[in-house]
Amino acid sequence: MNIMMIMRNLLLVMVVTGVLFSCDSAEELNRTYTLQWEDDFEGAAGESPNSANWTYDLGGGGWGNNELQVYTDLPENVSLDGNGNLVITALRDGFNYTSARIKTQGLFERTYGRFEARLKTPYGPGIWPAFWLLGGNIDEVGWPQCGEIDVMELRGQEPSEIAGTLHGPGYSGGASIGADFELENDRFDSDFFVYAVDWGPDFIDFFVNDQLYQRLTPDDVTGEWVYDHDFFIIFNVAVGGTYVGFPSPQTPFPQKMTIDYVRYYTF
Amino acid sequence: MKNLRIYKKLTVAVLGVILSTLFIGCNRDEDELPEASYPTAGDIYTNDSFVGLGTNFFFPFIDGGAKPDVFTVDQTEGYIGTSSIRIDVPDADDPGGSFAGATFIIDGFGRNLTQYNALTFWARASESATLNEFGFGVNAVGNQYQTAVPGVKLTTNWKQYIIPIPDPSKLVNEKGMMWFAAPGVCPSGEGDCFPENPNGGTKKGYTFWLDEVKFENLGTIGQPMAEIQNGEDAVVAAFVGQVLEVTGVNVSFNLPNGIDQALTTTSAFFDYEPSEPGVVSTAGSTLTVVGEGTTTITAKMGDIDATGSLTIQTISEAEEPTRDSRNVLSVFSDSYENVPVDFFNGFFIPDGQTTLGGAVETAPGKNIIYYTDLNFVIPTFTNPTIDASEMTHIHLDVFTFDDTEGAQLEIGLVDLGSDATFGGGNDVAGRFFLEGSGFTSGEWISLDIRLDEFEGLGDKANLGQLILVSQQIDNLILDNIYFYAESPAQDASLSDITIDGVSIDGFASGILTYPVNVPSSGVAPTILGIPSNEDAQVTVTPATTVPGTTTITVTAANGVTTQTYNIELLLTDVADVALSDLQVDGVTIEDFSSATTNYTIDLPDGTTVVPMVTATANDPEATVTITDASAIPGTTLVVVTGRDGTSTNTYRVNFNAGDVQGPVELLTNGDFENGTDPWFTNFGTGVPEIQMGGDNSFFFANVESAGDAFAVNLSQPVEVTQGSVYTLTFEASTGEGTTRSIIAGIGLNEAPFSNATQEVTLTETSQTFTLMLTAADFGGSNSRVLFDMGADVGVVVIDNVSLQGDSGGGTTPDPDPDPDPTPSELAVNGDFEGGTDPWFTNFGTGVPEVQTAGDNSFFFANVEVAGNAFAVNLSQQVEITQGSVYTLSFDASTGEGTTRTIIAGIGLNEQPFTNSTQELTLTEVSQNFSLTLSAAEFGSANSRILFDLGADVGVVVIDNVSLKAN
What we know:
CATH class of the largest domain in chain B: Mainly Beta
Number of strands of chain A: 19
Strand content of chain B: 35-45%
Structural class of chain A: mainly beta
Strand content of chain A: 35-45%
Structural class of chain B: mainly beta
Largest sheet of chain B: 7 strands, antiparallel
Number of strands of chain B: 67
CATH architecture of chain A: Sandwich
Radius of gyration of chain B: 37 Å
Number of helices of chain A: 1
Order of helices and strands of chain A: EEEEEEEEEEEHEEEEEEEE
Largest sheet of chain A: 10 strands, mixed
CATH superfamily of the largest domain in chain B: Galactose-binding lectin
Mean pLDDT of chain B: 85
Helix content of chain B: under 10%
Oligomer: heterodimer
CATH topology of the largest domain in chain B: Jelly Rolls
CATH topology of chain A: Jelly Rolls
CATH architecture of the largest domain in chain B: Sandwich
Low-confidence stretches of chain A: 1-27
Radius of gyration of chain A: 17 Å
Distance between the termini of chain A: 36 Å
């Protein structure tokens, strides 16, 4: 039985403003990146994403967080826009919400390297977009033993703030380890931003637009460092739930997460 | 009152500014004006002082009743620093003024605010209070860019507020820095005081403080939204020279808290672009029609495309009347002196009137009547009534650009009788019907209707009302409405037109155009016109071909007046696949209608011979194929193929013998042939909900604005038995070129209105829908068939509705034999013998969740990883009544040699998921649990029995679940 209990409330929050780390651009880390895999979502409007790369999580039931949406694979919830983007759309029909969650599970899974996506977030109270990685051994060892790397997730009522987080054994859900990154006088839904993690054997670095705002190492986590095996990529837009709260009557729908590309590099 | 004097004096000074500004505005070239000449400072009140506002900048809204002396600088209160702007809102009954409202206008040069995108301020109040509005742009020189956030809620803590600027590039010279309107606080609760509650108490004064007021450029404002015409694509007809205004301006921005904030603002922030040149000239949102044609106005707010548009179609003026004014009694015309008219639109909204509009002056001395959203409208003239005793005709010029095919305009006249007032038992209405076929879209139609052709109208000495009732036509323009007298010598009308000796359908002397279908032979029929005055001369010019037009020209006895009638001969529909007759054993089926394609014939007990079915097509050249039923019961099919060889239509004759255990029809008048009863609706339009098309009646509704689905409902009471399965079939369609959805099903006709419904999508082509519906969680004699149509706009046509119950027998409800019944079982399939339904889970395992051992079925799950309890859940929807106590009992066990916990109980099946549960420990031996659960804090129809299994690992077996109210 796969019980997906994903991305719990973030309690251990250290708020880091961009200014503190602004000198740590990727270039100064002296890493040389080699592109190994990408999906730039080229294709006709309305097409589903490339099935060689993507599969779907489907259905409702709250996804372990009392989320309200039902995930579908319908083009109205997830499809290319014809301009080189993949769009995940959360829709409201009365009190029913549909959205999509796509993943590379079984199709593209890697250990270490740089996972990067350029995307524009949706917004509004109760909207919860995320770009994240999940341990490929989840079906064998379960969650959180498999490990989870949240490259970015955003609460729609805080359109200027994202979180980068690790969930593992002993530090999952509300006890997860991570940091928030807040934009100065800007919003994540106003433009595309590049979100990335650089993942090595003993560190995971979190970036927004190549600005390093957080490094997590085995010393930072309060349990086992489980980031030593293949992980797969997930994009989703959730509606409601324990992390983000419920949408308000003022939350505009539909809400779209627009993904320009996702790339994997070795370094 | 010091401020009042200053204000008045300044008004004069400000007026001077208006004039000079206007003068400059007319002559200057924006490009040559150096913007830098205006200060670009953003601060208004910061760091304990006003910044650059000059000396006299506070202008209370005295003319609006505001108290003038409400503003001071408070040296003891500040968000930053030690001081702030203090406003003392008065009590509503304060003799000095009933509210605080004022604008802050720079005493000096206006500012260039183009580098900012918001007015921001910090505020707190002495108690929680709501400002009616707070904004900028009230500058006493036109308030062109007046903008505000409505309903600003203040708290007792300092909080920042943001007023976004729709398009900062417009604010190159703005003096209105900030303004507000603040009534007092209602002690008995918001909305409970005068004027919101006319009988309520008096609002009480309070104090609020403003600090750090400034224009800023915030990157944290996003998602601009702009609309004109309320986001709709509006279409209007207009005359050259007419001046129109773009309306329905809406603007919102998403604030840093993720919430969309709507603004009240002006159309001046938008730039307008016509699709075609030369039709309109634009000056801001003011449009002047300068040439003929059609153009669509779209708008931009800065870089943002506004949704909505305004399409302007120019039309010519109606032909000017030439009748001698001595023979005319005019109701509405620029050519005659008009009688007094009470109103052209009474806005009888409670009676279901939707019609908007009325008399409009399109240019000096030019008037028309322009109705939109027309269903009915009643121009009324009772002071005095019109004595039309000497009049023979009424004239109306009518125009629409709507599709007139299938439309109908009913024109009525009401005579109030000798008392000349409504009531008194002597009011008489006469009616005249103008069919769409006589009403060409996009042209003025000149109607001259003989008053004796108003069906039902007798006396006409006290005419008080003209009634217009429209089917389909939403937009109607009228001009030159007058009564006139015509002497027999001037009469160039016909009293009848015959085609091959038969009077033409829908003839009226004032209708000059008639379309006529000619059978396939293509031979023009013989057409004759009979003059109203036998001394008039009639000349018939037959069409030379079909299709073609036969004209009848009538020359009045005076030899001068002429009138021409046109009979348009059309070829019969090559796709006509209707039957004109359908017979069983030589007798036409009762209730036969060419539009009804499904018939059921009950034959005598024991009948085995299939009766003979014969059919006649409308079009003699259509092909009819009859396939007899093979046995009784059975269905004989009649397929009609049109002369085009491709169009087909199938009629079904279903034969039942007496004793057949067939499904029983539960509805009456499902085909609406008997009008409305026993159907009921929850709306009234003034338009009959049952309409006729040919000899078929059907339900018709046109939803003009979307809302709750149930807000527009058609229902018929029917008894539903809980647990039974029903088949609902019906035919439905929507308007041409559109699709829309409706909800159809069965449900309770009383609270909690539990139901089993499905959403279906209608198209312009009629579809037959067949829905299988299970009354799983409701039933009773007060149930109904229901159609919910309110969630989507557009026409809904419904016909031939049928509801059939289970044929399995036993559906007749037994009278309750037990006067003191034991609590009824609320769980369905609690023993899982019926499989999964209606249980649901939030996980999928690939393993069936209901397993069977021997002849017993049970629920089975094996939780492999522990997590949140609710992550592995088994539930069944039940209705829970708040305040009631329930007993939940069930058998449960876990795997051999292990123990584990689960959570069991009842709770809401929707947010906030409030529940009443208990944790239990399972062992390998099955235990019977009986939990007493109180629904003290929740209850709704959407509640559930729940088992949360995710907090512990191991097997869970559940069986024999029962829930009863105590």
